[in-house]
Amino acid sequence: xxxxxxxxxxxxxxxxxxxxxxxxxxxxxxxxxxxxxxxxxxxxxxxxxxxxxxxxxxxxxxxxxxxxxxxxxxxxxxxxxxxxxxxxxxxxxxxxxxxxxxxxxxxxxxxxxxxxxxxxxxxxxxxxxxx
Length: 131
Hints:
The structure is a single chain. The chain has a 3-stranded parallel β-sheet. Helix 3 (52-61) packs across helix 4. It is α/β, with parallel strands linked by helices. The protein is globular. Helix 1 (22-30) links the parallel strand 1 and strand 2 (34-38). The chain is built from 6 helices and 3 strands; from the N terminus they run βαβαααβαα.
């Protein structure tokens, strides 16, 4: 950004509950850049959909684990565009605004962050230092 007049409006980066991009998210927010989650449902990784914390929250809120994951990200001000060709899944993915995770539940999901890359992004793409 120091070398160009135009600042990006949106940055799409790999983000799901296993890779939450906390530091990069803060950097984007500080620069008024929208954080868009690439693969917000972890490419359908079975271990996410069957994770005990997510299943517990899904039962608590009477929603699916996918809806809990999407709601977590949207409550963190991360834009989500989940990919699906299944009409039932598409409808469910839109139905995440009739509940809100409590601060305690947000903290529970935050503990799931493993900085785990689904796609093997190089470590040089991770913002580890303070900016």
